[in-house]
Amino acid sequence: MLKINNMEAGYGKIMIVRDLDLVIESKEIVSIIGRNGIGKSTLVKSIIGLVPINKGELIYNSKAVTNKKAHERAWEGMGYVPQGHQVFPMLTVEENLRMGKLINKKSGNLDFEIIYNYFPKLFERRKQKAGTLSGGEQAALSLGRALVGNPELLILDEPTEGIQPNLVQEIGEIIKQINKDLGITVLLVEQHIGLIQAISQRCYAMDKGKIAQEIQGDDIKNYDLLKEYLAV
Ligand SMILES: Nc1ncnc2c1ncn2[C@@H]1O[C@H](COP(=O)(O)OP(=O)(O)OP(=O)(O)O)[C@@H](O)[C@H]1O
Q: Does 72 fall in a domain?
């Protein structure tokens, strides 16, 4: 579904991601791990078109999208859950979900009912301003807003950041469920080792802007190996 060849991306003249290769097959759940500031968000932003790709190639569904704009990539089925959730604070829960419906032109939209089934709290709070929700509820709303666009590839940047430990597992279960029920491919940037181990089929460890190691099979259960790429 997604193939990155020898990619370089960054800000102005400063390249953060360098010589990066990565492959994601359809219906996989793949995680990206790495220390703070190593370039994980820059990588996912370059995939969705928010950071320009300076060199290399980004292939999505067998087509080069390297030079396509962010909204065109969204229309093609890329969904994004940004770091820090970034809900629209002055809009209600339902209005936030409606914003998500504007995104994916290719495969139609999902009904709010499906989202509310995954997140019953969002239904209860559908008339409430998003800025007044708890961190966990904002994480759910950000995920729901991306889902209503019916993405084929869902890219999540640290969806569990700043939320209570008991909700981390719940978010993980829902990600696994949507992958299974809706056939959505998932690329997850995450620092929470338990969550990575619980839901990922493969994992790419980043170091100095490159992929340092691909971790798969039983190695994903190796806590010390994952920790090596996350420890400061
Ligand atoms: N808009 C920007 N302009 C210039 N430099 C930036 C910009 N955004 C990020 N950077 C720099 O790029 C580097 C990588 O940042 P990035 O956010 O991609 O890392 P990260 O691995 O996602 O970190 P974290 O885990 O803390 O979110 C950092 O040195 C950061 O300061």
A: yes
213 three-state secondary structure: strand
* Model confidence pLDDT, tens digit, residues 89-141: 999 999 999 998 877 666 666 788 889 999 999 999 999 999 999 999 999 99
Q: Give the count of domains, the chain.
A: 1
| 229 occurs within a structural domain | no
Ligand 1: residue whose CA is nearest its atom 8:
42
Would you state the structure tokens that stand for residue 134, as one six-digit string? Answer: 């708890």
Is the residue at 232 inside a domain? no
Ligand 1 atom 31 nearest Cα: 37
Ligand 1 binding site (Cβ under 6 Å of any ligand atom): 11, 16, 34, 36-42, 83
Burial class (CB in 10 A: 0-12, 13-18, 19+), 225: middle
Instruction: Check whether 65 has a pLDDT greater than 70.
Output: yes
**Residue range 70-92, pLDDT digits in tens:** 999 998 899 999 998 999 999 99
Closest residue by Cα to atom 6, ligand 1, is 11
Residue 110 within any structural domain of the chain:
yes
Residue to substitute in 7, 8, 15, 16 for testing ligand 1 pocket (most ligand atoms within 8 angstroms of CB): 16
Q: Do 14 and 51 form a contact (C-beta atoms < 8 A)?
A: no
pLDDT digits 0-9 by tens, 174-191:
999 999 999 999 999 999
Give which of 66, 219, 85 is closest to 159, Cα–Cα.
Answer: 85
User: What CATH number does residue 173 fall under?
Assistant: 3.40.50.300
